[in-house]
Design the sequence.
């Protein structure tokens, strides 16, 4: 499984790697295409520059031609100015000169008109070229902006892919290291498993041989000694005591206690409901204090007054059932005899409900026939009558299933074991149906109470009674809901507990066999308790013999031992007195020392010299010693083993051991205990050192793996940084080239604008001059 998982992981990682490589190739193709587009744009810019240069040359030639024409016009004007005085002198010659001047003027006008048309045509061409150039420039700028945006987007994609590629590489390397470690561990485990399998096979072989021998021996013993097998027949097997499941019994008792609490709440709610219904009949529609009620309601009230004799036994039956479930019994349907009594009490309550149902329906019809009943109130009464029928039907259904569950404890053939689970589920469904019916009753009764409260003849007594009935109906609804949810939550446990019975059998056959089994269980428990009685404490035989020898060999009597005890008590009292004396002396010495230190400190403060600086450690040590003695005296004796022989020398003073051998034994035992303690400490230290050595070794291996991975990652980071720097250089170069081209284009445009403005000024001057000439000619 581990190898298959590893192969699956490697395949997924290889697919991701191939996808990343394909994306990288696509991005490379996109970068190459963008470079080709930039080269094409550069060529287009070169062509546009050439066209602009040609246009500039044409503009230069036109300006030169315009200058020539302007000079010629000036010459002609000068000649005209010279020819005017001559015309005054010679009229005859003036006529001929006027003809010549008119001819020249007509020629000049024609030339000027041609030049003006040619200038207009050139101006239109220049304007069209300027507009085309601006349009081309705007297109190129927008395309350049889009290309720059695409380049930034591609760069971001490339950065993201490189980052993702690096993350995947790191992840793959980490997974590879983990998988290598895991593979090594799995190989070790496989080797260990192989060794274990070999050992297990050997053990299995030995066990098979041993068990086969035991089986033959047990079969021979059974054939020779056992008269019959009681588990073979179900009648005899039912008498065997099953294994005691204390947890099952405790849980069953807990569930029975919860059911008892729910039944008590339900009984209280039913009592309140019937009692308050009786009070309502005495009040509405006719108040018994004012007028006599109908005979039907009197009979109905009489029956309702007997509700406690039918409802209270339900609580008592459930209480008896709870008390029958103890820790020592075996709780199954065959042994719960008290369930039959609860079923009988429930049957008597169902008879009570059947008896009062027609009276209740007739009472509601009587309310509908009264003059105070409105149409809405009549509808609510009809709904309540239907709800009461449903309530009686639900209780009958519940009583049927409960009586079926009580059959195994009385009649063995009354209910098959295969039908136990279906009966239990139907009990839960009946409880949920009872909850639904009570919800409808509480809802309809609340609507009825609100309508009756609005009547003008409604009294405070009726209002309070209706509120009490409504609260009891709500309590019944809540109790039914709790019962239903409780039973549905525990139905699985009930179904599982039905299989709890004798071993190797389908269960208890009859209630009689179950009762016999319980008697046998009590006898077995009593026998086990008798066996578990603790024996009285007694002295072992060897120890008693040794004590008898000591008593016989000792020459000391009881009086001598009493004297020794008295002497030891006196010594103890003297030692305690001395201890108190020395404690007081130590306290006095401590007080004197504190006073002396205070005096020295005051003297130092007064003199201000630092001569007694060296006394501080000594005084601190002296102060510390009495504090330690006082702490030791306060804490008292502790169970700490001392390495000194002071405790050993105090033993003779306290107890006066007369024998030398006992002293040697005490010394020997003391040193042996000390040696055992030291060896245990040494073993603990050795185990800690081995643990620390193993941890250090594992950490060193992890450190070596981490260093190797760090080196590989640093190399990959270097390569990635180189690629990033290269891409940044390419980007900066492309940006610079684009900026240079834009600057050149802007310079060309500025120069063209200047030339155009100059040409426009020249054309304006020519127009002005032509207008002035035309005016002069007209004046002439």
Sequence:
């Amino acid at each position: 499984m581990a190898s298959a998982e590893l192969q699956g992981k490697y395949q997924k990682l290889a697919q991701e790697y191939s996808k990343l490589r394909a994306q990288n190739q696509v991005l490379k193709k996109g970068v190459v295409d963008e470079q080709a587009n930039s080269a094409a744009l550069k060529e287009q810019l070169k062509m546009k520059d050439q066209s602009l240069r040609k246009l500039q040359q044409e503009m230069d030639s036109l300006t030169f031609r315009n200058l020539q024409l302007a000079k010629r016009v000036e010459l002609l004007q000068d000649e005209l100015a010279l020819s005017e005085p001559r015309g005054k002198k010679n009229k005859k010659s003036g006529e001929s000169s006027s003809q010549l001047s008119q001819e020249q003027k007509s020629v000049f006008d024609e030339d000027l008109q041609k030049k003006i048309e040619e200038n207009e045509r050139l101006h239109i061409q220049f304007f069209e070229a300027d507009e085309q150039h601006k349009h081309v420039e705007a297109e190129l700028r927008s395309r350049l902006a889009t290309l720059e945006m695409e380049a930034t987007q591609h760069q971001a994609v490339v950065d993201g892919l490189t980052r993702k590629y690096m993350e995947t590489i790191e992840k793959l390397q980490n997974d590879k290291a983990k998988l290598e470690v895991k593979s090594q561990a799995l190989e070790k485990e496989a080797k260990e498993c192989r060794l274990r399998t070999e050992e297990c096979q050997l053990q299995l072989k030995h066990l098979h041989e041993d068990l086969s021998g035991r089986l033959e021996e047990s079969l021979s013993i059974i054939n020779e000694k056992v008269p019959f097998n009681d588990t073979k027949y179900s009648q005899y097997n039912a008498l065997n005591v099953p294994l005691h499941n204390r947890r099952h019994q405790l849980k069953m008792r807990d569930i029975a206690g919860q059911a008892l609490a729910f039944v008590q709440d339900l009984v209280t709610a039913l009592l309140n409901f019937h009692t308050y219904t009786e009070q309502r009949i005495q009040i509405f529609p006719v108040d018994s204090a004012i007028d006599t009620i109908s005979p039907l309601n009197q009979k109905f009230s009489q029956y309702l007054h007997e509700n406690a004799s039918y409802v209270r036994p339900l609580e008592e039956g459930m209480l008896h059932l709870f008390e029958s479930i103890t820790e020592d019994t075996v709780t199954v349907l065959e042994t719960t005899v008290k369930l039959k009594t609860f079923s009988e009490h429930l049957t008597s309550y169902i008879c009570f409900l059947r008896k009062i149902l027609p009276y209740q329906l007739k009472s509601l019809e009587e309310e509908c026939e009264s003059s105070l009943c409105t149409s809405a109130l009549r509808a609510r009464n009809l709904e309540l009558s239907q709800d009461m029928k449903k309530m009686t039907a639900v209780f009958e259904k519940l009583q049927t299933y409960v009586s079926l569950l009580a059959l195994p404890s009385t009649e063995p053939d009354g209910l098959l074991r295969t039908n136990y689970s279906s009966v239990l589920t139907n009990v839960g469904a009946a409880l949920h149906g009872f909850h639904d019916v009570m919800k409808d009753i509480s809802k309809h009764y609340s609507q009825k109470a609100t309508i009756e409260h609005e009547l003008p003849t409604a009294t405070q007594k009726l209002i309070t009674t209706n509120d009490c009935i409504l609260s009891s109906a709500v309590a019944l609804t809540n109790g039914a809901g709790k019962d239903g949810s409780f039973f549905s939550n525990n139905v699985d446990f009930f179904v599982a507990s039905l299989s709890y019975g004798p071993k190797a059998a389908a269960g208890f056959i009859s209630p009689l066999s179950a009762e016999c089994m319980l008697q046998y269980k009590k006898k077995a428990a009593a026998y086990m308790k008798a066996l578990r009685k603790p024996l009285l404490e007694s002295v072992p035989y060897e120890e008693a013999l040794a004590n008898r020898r000591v008593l016989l060999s000792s020459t000391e009597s009881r009086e001598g031992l009493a004297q020794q005890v008295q002497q030891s008590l006196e010594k103890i009292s003297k030692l305690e007195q001395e201890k108190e004396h020395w404690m007081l002396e130590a306290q006095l010495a401590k007080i004197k020392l504190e006073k002396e230190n205070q005096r020295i400190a005051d003297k130092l403060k007064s003199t201000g010299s630092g001569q007694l600086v060296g006394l501080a450690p000594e005084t601190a040590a002296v102060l510390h010693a009495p504090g330690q003695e006082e702490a030791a005296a306060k804490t008292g004796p502790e169970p700490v083993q001392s390495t000194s022989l002071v405790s050993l020398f105090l033993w003779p003073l306290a107890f006066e051991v007369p024998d030398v051998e006992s002293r040697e034994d005490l010394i020997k035992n003391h040193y042996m205990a000390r040696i055992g303690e030291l060896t245990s400490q040494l073993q603990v230290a050795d185990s800690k050192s081995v643990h620390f050595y193993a941890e250090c070794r594992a950490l060193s291996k992890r450190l070596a793996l981490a260093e190797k991975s760090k080196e590989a990652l640093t190399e990959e980071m270097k390569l990635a940084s180189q690629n990033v720097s290269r891409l940044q250089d390419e980007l900066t170069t492309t940006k610079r080239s684009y900026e240079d081209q834009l600057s050149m284009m802007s310079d060309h445009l500025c120069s063209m604008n200047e030339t155009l403005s100059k040409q426009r000024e020249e054309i304006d001057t020519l127009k002005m001059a032509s207008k002035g000439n035309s005016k002069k000619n007209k004046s002439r």
Summary: Residues 609-658 have pLDDT under 50 and may be disordered.
